Amino acid sequence: MNPSLTDIPTLSRRGLLQFSLGASAFLVTVGLGASLSGCSPSQPASGLTALRNSDLAFLRAVIPVTLNGAVAAEKIPAATAATLQNLDISLAHLSPAMLKLTRQLFDVLTLGITRGPLTGVWGSWENANADDIQKFLERWENSALDLLRQGHSSLLQMVMMAWYSRAEAWAHCGYPGPPKI
């Protein structure tokens, strides 16, 4: 016999808070474990100030998807490279505490044990297609977990600020540039 909707237990506010607390503790533990175990070296990639090699594969996969529609398809590779440069500069100017939090977010997204369950991308970011990445972004944007929604918002804001701080991005949104003094 199939259970009716009234027979299925619902998640109480307390249950949701407990689940969220447990999920948050799990993510912090995994991020901290990855940092301490050396899974994610804290040394910046060659030619960069803050971004690490492990961050680059993820960002090179995600940036083109987030810039889709704002940049012509043939200009996506150059826009991705420019966005990475600006993002690196921005991250280099963060406080040590904020940089640590950002690196923990990147660690969770790049570490295989957390990447698959949390993003739905089970292989490497280099092999993820645009649909997989779009589904990951939508999954985090609409998540019941506040921590994932915050991660989505932070990631999107970092990428958009890095792109739209560039003069070549201004025409698309109708910004004429700063006033000439």
Task: Characterize the structure shown.
About 65% of the residues lie in helices and about 0% in strands. The protein is globular, with a radius of gyration of 19 Å. The protein has helices at about 15-35, 55-65, 75-90, 95-110, 110-120, 130-140, 145-165, 165-175. The chain contains eight helices and no strands. It starts with 12 loop residues before the first helix and ends in an 8-residue tail after the last helix. The chain has a domain at about 50-170.
Topology:
Blueprint: H1 13-37, H2 53-67, H3 76-92, H4 96-110, H5 112-119, H6 130-141, H7 146-164, H8 167-173
Helix pairs in contact: 1-4, 2-3, 2-4, 3-7
Protein name: Twin-arginine translocation pathway signal protein
InterPro entries: TAT_signal (IPR006311)
Q: Features of this protein?
A:
single chain, 181 residues, mainly alpha, 8 helices, globular
SSE ordering? HHHHHHHH
Strand content: under 5%
Q: Portion of residues in helices?
A: 55-70%
The number of helical runs is 8
Gyration radius, in Å: 19 Å
Structural classification = mainly alpha
Task: Report the span from N to C terminus.
Answer: 77 Å
Low-confidence stretches: none
Q: State the major sheet.
A: none
Q: Give the tally of β-strands.
A: 0
Q: What is the 3D form?
A: globular
What value does the average pLDDT take? 84
